[in-house]
Write a structure and sequence with these properties.
This protein is mainly beta and 797 residues long. It contains 3 helices and 69 strands. It starts with a helix and ends in a 5-residue tail after the last strand. It holds the Pfam family CHU_C.
């Protein structure tokens, strides 16, 4: 049952309003992956985007996109990469441009591309891999999915492992044919080809699937994220195999990719086609194309039936052969009320919208005709097959003309049943009638080919053969000099080519790589090189003579050691004259110990054999030695027969010691000698020197006591005389123990470890009474103690 005219007009107005407000929305698209074939794992990636050609939105469309490659087994991200817009944006051509313009069906194709290099060993997983590209958004006028304006796209492609069982597996994805702009008339049978081609000859199988939505919330443009990807949400009654309702509904031929539907509902409907590739019965990959069709109500009218014929040929001729470079005209029935759209091999041709078309290329030509100024049913003509005979006429060259030598062979291959006549600079070349020619002369060359038996005459393209400029081989040194410094090398650099052969004194230096432009000359001689350019042309440099600079012998007189910094400045003497003195404390040819300070200082004398040479260096050590010091007590008291060590403290690194006299000493040349069984007072003189001869002296006097003398009495009465008990000689016994008792045997005084605080006749701060006090005195630990009695008198006269 036909819908009312009012409803049709209302629907069309709604569509016009919706399309106008859509600005720039995505209509569909797909991915392609092509093996470049030069290096394993080198691929060309293409993203085809079909967009509404909005007046403002399309100009803001990004010219880049982000993609990701993922491993299917675990969805691991293998490689994120960016594609860029590489071609002019091409409009999608409609068979009825009037109807397309009426419904604002103005679409454009954007092509993004990138070359990527994948390591085969990293892509060897048996489950394979996939590429995804996500974008947004669909337009609000879509009638078979929910919330279309917030629904995006995921373009999806699967490919097999690049390396399988250690062997390279070469594969390119199926490639969809270019898209035609079409609308569907309500109630009329409609067919449309979604056929793909496969560069590897794999079997292709087609099916309708649910389009994929963009993953994630917020619909970030071109987000790179792993599967799974959500499906679009179908409205009730719609699905992958019922995307466009009809009788029959939208379907696809599994073998050919031909879409078919007789639509029963007006609207804009999205759908997706999946094409899977099989090799040797095994599924190895897939790619999907997302697209949409508009179903309109076409006014009832007689379907145009265009008759076509080839101009100047008999009616009914459907196959015509023309010579390459010629043309012929195909005519359709002329009717001022018809729109025309010509096709070649099913693809709409741009600007081919008149009742006739002039053709030069091979293919099957048809014309689609519809009523002018109406969205009517279309009529399709039968096809006319045009065959073009004659080779493309492409020439190839090998070889090159150098400045004075060389030859070039020009070839044409792939032609059969032709005769050849070569031309150079417009003149026929006598006797040159084969498919190749070898020349040593520059010029412009082409062939005139005559096709047998058609007699078609056509000309190949023209190749220009020119001589390259002479190779200008040259040698220069890094220093700009021809002189070679002693014990050094001179860096030589060749120029003028891409490969080099070096010679010295007429002999080839075979140890140098032929591609190396650099050589380090270590010996005098005459050098030259042969430079070869990218074409294989050669040139020989002029001779480059390297001269040897005689070596120079450099000496620096020794520097005497100095004791301390307060010494005269030393004059440095180096040979030969004219060199440079350097070092800490050095100024001109003088060394100052005061400026340098104590220490060992390196002094250098440098003389250059020539200004461009590295200097020859002689070095000496300037030693500013410290003056030794001796920390030794001036005097020492001990007891007769004692044995002990003398322990002076030194500075200034002395290494020679001499004690005078040597009496009682264990070693008179030791830094810390031992005095053994000393019997009498003695004075020692110590003389020390360091390795630089710096000297210091010191003396010590040792007093020897035979025993300690204890007086019989003392008078601690405060008169300043004998107020404390004096023990002459006690200082010789630093470990002496003195104990004093009262008459009851109680200890009233104890000095343990020498007699540091003399006994003053008090005990706990109280005066002891006059009386006799026993004592013991042990001068040396472990020796018998002395005993006696001491009278304490307090006479206050």
């Amino acid at each position: 049952m036909r819908i009312s005219t009012f409803r049709v007009i209302l629907f069309l107005l709604t569509l016009v309003y919706s399309f106008t407000s859509w600005a720039t929305h995505q209509v569909g698209g797909q991915l392609e992956m092509r093996a470049i074939g030069d290096v394993p794992g080198h691929y060309h990636i293409t993203v085809i985007n079909y967009l509404e050609d909005g007046t403002t939105g399309i100009s803001r469309q990004s010219n880049t996109g982000n993609l990701g490659i993922f491993r299917k087994r675990d969805n691991a991200l293998m490689l994120p990469f960016t594609v860029r817009e590489t071609a002019a944006r091409q409009p999608i051509i409609y068979s009825n441009e009037f109807c397309a313009a009426l419904r604002n069906l103005k679409f454009v194709t954007l092509t993004y591309e990138a070359d990527i290099q994948l390591a085969p060993s990293s892509y060897a997983d048996a489950a394979g891999y996939y590429i995804s590209y996500q974008t947004r958004n669909r337009n609000a006028g879509i009638n078979n999915i929910s919330n279309p304006s917030q629904t995006g796209f995921t373009f999806y492609l699967e490919f097999p492992a690049i390396q399988q069982n250690g062997t390279l597996f070469v594969n390119s994805s199926p490639r969809f044919s270019p898209i035609n702009g079409e609308y569907i008339c309500l109630g009329d049978p409609f067919t449309f080809s979604f056929a793909a081609t496969d560069a590897d000859g794999d079997d292709l199988r087609y099916s309708l699937v649910t389009p994929l939505n963009q993953k994630g919330t917020g619909n970030t443009q071109n987000a790179v994220s792993a599967a799974p990807y959500p499906d679009v949400s179908w409205l009730s009654g719609f699905g992958a195999t019922n995307a466009i309702p009809g009788s029959p509904t939208l379907s696809i031929n599994e073998q050919t990719g031909q879409l078919a539907v007789t639509a029963s509902q007006l609207g804009l409907f999205v759908f997706a086609v999946k094409v899977e590739e099989y090799r040797n019965g095994m599924r190895i990959g897939e790619v999907r194309r997302d697209f949409q069709f508009l179903v309109v109500d076409c006014p009832p009218a007689t379907t145009p039936n265009p008759a076509v014929q080839v101009k100047d040929r008999a009616l009914g001729i459907r196959s015509v052969t023309i010579c390459r470079g010629d043309s012929t005209v195909i005519q359709a029935t002329a009717d001022a009320n018809w729109n025309y759209q010509w096709r070649r091999d099913g693809v709409n041709l741009p600007h081919a919208t008149t009742s006739s078309i002039t053709v030069r290329e091979a293919g099957e030509y048809t014309v689609v005709v519809s009523q002018k100024a109406a969205c009517s049913k279309t009529g399709n003509s039968p096809g006319v097959i045009i065959t073009v005979v004659g080779a493309e006429g492409k020439l190839s060259t090998s070889g090159h003309l150098c400045a004075t030598t060389g030859s070039v062979q020009i070839n044409m291959s792939g032609s059969t049943d032709v005769t050849y006549q070569w031309y150079m600079n417009g003149q026929a070349m006598s006797g040159k009638t084969t498919d190749s020619v070898t020349t040593s002369q520059p010029g412009k060359y082409w062939i005139v080919l005559t096709q047998q038996p058609t007699g078609c005459v056509f000309r190949t393209d023209t190749v220009g053969i020119d001589r390259s400029a002479a190779v200008q081989a040259a040698i220069q040194s890094a220093t700009g000099s021809h002189r070679l410094c002693p014990q050094s090398s001179l860096a030589l650099t060749g120029s003028g080519g891409v490969a080099y052969a070096w010679q010295k004194d007429g002999q080839t230096l075979s140890s140098i790589a032929t591609s190396d432009a650099n050589y380090s000359a270590t010996a005098a001689g005459v050098y030259s090189l042969t430079a070869t350019d990218a074409y294989g042309c050669t040139g020989i440099s002029t001779a480059f003579t390297v001269e040897q600079i005689p070596p120079v012998t450099v000496t620096l007189d020794s520097i005497p050691d100095m004791c301390g910094t307060n010494v005269p400045i030393v004059t440095l003497i180096g040979s030969p004259p004219g060199g440079e003195y350097t070092g800490n404390g050095v100024a001109e040819a003088q060394f100052s110990a005061q400026k340098a300070g104590v220490g060992q200082h390196s002094v250098a004398y440098t003389v250059k054999a020539a200004p461009e040479c590295v200097g020859t260096v002689a070095t000496r050590k300037a030693v500013v030695a410290p003056i030794p010091t001796i920390q030794l007590t001036d005097s020492l008291t001990t007891y007769k027969g004692n044995t002990f060590t003398l322990d002076p403290v030194y500075s200034g690194n002395p290494n020679q010691y001499r004690w005078v006299s040597a009496t009682y000493l264990s070693d008179d040349k030791a830094a810390n000698p031992t005095i053994t069984n000393i019997l009498a007072d003695i004075t020692y003189t110590l003389d020390v020197k360091n390795s630089s001869g710096c000297e210091a002296k010191d003396t010590i006097h040792i007093t020897v006591y035979e025993r300690v003398w204890v007086p019989d009495a003392f008078t601690p009465n405060g008169d300043g005389l004998n107020d404390v008990l004096r023990l002459p000689g006690i200082e010789a016994f630093p470990e002496a123990v003195i104990t004093i008792f009262n008459r009851w045997g109680e200890v009233v005084y104890l000095s343990n470890g020498g007699y540091v605080k003399p006994f003053d006749g008090t005990y706990n701060g109280n005066d002891l009474p006059t009386g006799v006090y026993p004592y013991t005195l042990r001068p040396i630990p472990g020796k018998p103690s002395m005993q006696g009695r001491l009278l304490l008198l307090r006479d206050h006269h």
